[in-house]
Design a protein that fits this description.
The strands form six sheets. Strands 1, 12, 15, 20, 21, 22, 23 and 26 form an eight-stranded antiparallel beta sheet that branches. Strands 2, 3, 6, 7, 8, 9 and 13 form a seven-stranded antiparallel beta sheet that branches. The protein has a five-stranded antiparallel beta sheet with strand order 19-18-17-16-25, with no helix packed on it. A hairpin with a 2-residue loop joins strand 17 and strand 18. The protein contains three helices and 26 strands. The protein is mainly beta and about 270 residues long.
Length: about 270
């Protein structure tokens, strides 16, 4: 029979259902089917009223977002952590909040909602220290050629976790040790959506761009995540410029799961 019973139909699997244990997880899609919170809290420009925006069919509820924003703009005050650790990213200053709606239209990157981070940043509620292995998965588009674009930075110390430049990746640990991945082979481009992963396993640091694994370099020390999209004391020239749709951090070696994480993410965002 061609008829398939409901028991035989597989359920959709969200990323964190399979790859558990994230330390922090920010996304505009639903990452865990047990998560019952919202995606973001937004402020509309017309009267500065705020409202939480959740998910619809596993994606940001853009219908509710647009109804709330009306013909104006909407800015993100809080990006909720879906890891279960309640380490939400927030920005109370209205002048530094990322934008999600512009003149009554959801801001999109490759057809999916995104946060516009021009001259804006968000603070996580608490720092996360990675003294050993970690794994970072992110979806972004860097659209500025300034000296530094801090994807993950530091507010309390002049040390960046992860910064991006023209076809270059730079990391700096809490002991101020810098590792640079540079050259054409890295494959980062401005004004292009990327799926970027960075893993640390057994003191080896290895990036992956759009499914292409790059040469690893030796590293040591502790890496700290304590602010999202910013650098020391809000130095404007070091703020991340561009759009971001997702950042997930694991305090563990996820190298064996890298391909699965990339496949899940690319299936949703269709990056490459």
């Amino acid at each position: 029979s061609l008829k398939q019973t409901w028991e035989e139909i597989p359920e959709a699997t969200d990323l964190l259902d399979t790859y558990t244990g994230a330390a922090a997880a920010y996304s505009l899609r639903l990452l865990d089917n047990t998560y019952t919170g919202s995606a973001i809290r937004v402020r509309r420009s017309s009267d500065s009223t705020e409202q939480d925006i959740g998910f619809s069919s596993g994606e940001l509820d853009t219908a509710t977002l647009l109804t709330f924003a009306g013909a104006g703009d909407a800015f993100v005050k809080t990006w909720y952590d879906q890891s279960g650790n309640s380490n939400d990213a927030a920005q109370a200053s209205t002048g530094a909040q990322p934008q999600s709606v512009s003149s009554g239209a959801v801001i999109l990157e490759n057809g999916k909602p995104t946060l516009s981070l021009s001259d804006s940043f968000m603070n996580s509620l608490s720092a996360i220290s990675f003294p050993a292995d970690f794994f970072v998965s992110s979806v972004f588009n860097t659209n500025t050629t300034q000296a530094f674009n801090m994807l993950l930075g530091s507010y309390t110390e002049v040390k960046s976790f992860l910064s991006l430049r023209t076809d270059e990746i730079k990391t700096r640990n809490a002991q101020n040790s810098i590792i640079t991945f540079g050259g054409v082979a890295i494959g980062l481009s401005y004004n292009q959506q990327h799926l970027f992963n960075l893993s640390r396993a057994s003191n080896s640091l290895q990036p992956s761009v759009d499914g292409n694994v790059k040469t690893a370099q030796a590293t040591s020390g502790t890496y700290n995540y304590d602010q999202l999209f910013a650098y020391a004391n809000n130095i404007t020239s070091f703020l991340f410029g561009g759009n971001c749709q997702e950042i997930i951090l694991w305090g563990s070696d996820e190298t064996a799961n890298r391909t699965g994480i990339e496949t899940n993410t690319n299936t949703f965002y269709t990056i490459y």
